[in-house]
Specification:
Blueprint: E1 17-19, E2 22-30, E3 34-39, E4 44-49, E5 52-55, E6 60-63, H1 67-84, E7 91-96, E8 99-103, E9 106-107, E10 110-117, H2 121-125, E11 133-143, E12 152-153, H3 155-160, H4 166-188, E13 192-204, E14 207-211, E15 219-223, H5 233-236, H6 241-257
Antiparallel strand pairs: 1-2, 2-3, 3-4, 4-8, 5-6, 7-8, 9-13, 10-11, 10-13, 11-12, 13-14, 13-15
Helix pairs in contact: 1-6
Bound molecules: guanosine-5'-monophosphate.
Residues 111, 113, 120-122, 196-198, 217-220, 232 line the site of guanosine-5'-monophosphate.
Length: 258
């Protein structure tokens, strides 16, 4: 994440606090589900996961106590799994249960989606049946632009809009396909099926790496045996907040506690 264009920047919180040796500075950016704070080490920032859950480009919003901590812990674990699998990302360490220290990146205003099974927006956009398996998986790019409904982008669009070079587009495709293999394998050993997920990338000294978060807010995961939905689709489909929290807790138990 960090300070992308869709974030409202604020200098309201000027207090400096010291936690675990890090001095926490200004609020740099405030997103729908995360806050970004400056740290005294300029190459790092603090990501604080909020308890908010949103859908419909932020038009629907609720709070689930404890969701921020669940997502922070799940993201931290999956970023470590990705790093061990050779996918470079911004995770440094946890600061408290809902905050992590990450590398400060210059984020690309892109959402990169990898799909193993057809559901969600692709079955609305294209004549594809729900549940069709994609082999090989499909990678799609979307512009982060709520006002335009996050339109899908081709490689030509990305290059013409100067969002990334052709080489970087290829690099992001390679990285998300690698991440897909690593995550599918890790999750399947825990009885979970990865339907699809979204990554965001940023540059650090010109080099691309995965940023943002990696948790049930931005992935579709199902129980491999029962097909139970264990992600934000529950909220999108109108399930109770208790059901949403219980699904996130189940993912936490299988991914973090095991
Ligand atoms: P779809 O394009 O089918 O709506 O979403 C594909 C995948 O990307 C899903 O796992 C979904 O959770 C994730 N995704 C797409 N757009 C967003 C977004 O704006 N925010 C988050 N957190 N995840 C998204």
């Amino acid at each position: 994440m960090s300070c992308d264009k869709t974030f409202k920047c604020s200098v309201a919180d000027k207090r400096l606090r010291i936690v675990m040796g890090y001095k926490i500075g200004d609020l740099i950016a405030s997103g729908k589900t995360k806050l970004v704070y400056a740290l005294d080490t300029p190459s790092l920032v603090l990501l604080r996961f909020k308890d908010d859950v949103t859908a419909l480009d932020g038009r629907r919003r609720d709070t689930i106590a404890g969701k921020g901590a669940l997502n922070a812990a799940i993201s931290a674990k999956l970023f470590q799994v990705l790093r061990e699998g050779g996918v470079e990302n911004h995770f440094v360490e946890m600061l408290d249960e809902s905050s992590m220290v990450v590398e400060r990146l210059s984020m690309l205003p892109l959402e990169v989606v990898c799909r193993n099974v057809a559901t969600g927006s692709i079955v609305k956009r294209l004549p594809i049946q729900e549940g069709v398996v994609f082999d090989p998986p499909i990678v799609e790019f979307f512009l982060k632009d709520d006002a335009r409904g996050d339109p899908m982008l081709s490689e030509a669009h990305i290059v013409a809009l100067k969002l990334a070079s052709r080489g970087e587009v290829d690099e992001m495709i390679r990285a998300i396909l690698k991440a897909n293999e690593v995550l599918k394998d890790f999750l399947s050993k825990r009885g979970l099926t990865l339907i699809d997920f979204k990554l965001e990338f940023g540059r650090k000294e010109g080099k691309l790496m995965v940023g943002d978060e990696l948790d049930p807010d931005c992935m579709r995961i199902r129980d491999s045996e029962t097909g139970r939905i264990l992600d934000k689709d529950l909220y999108r489909k109108g399930a109770s907040l208790e059901e949403v929290k219980s699904a996130y807790e189940e993912v936490y138990r299988r991914i973090v506690e095991r």
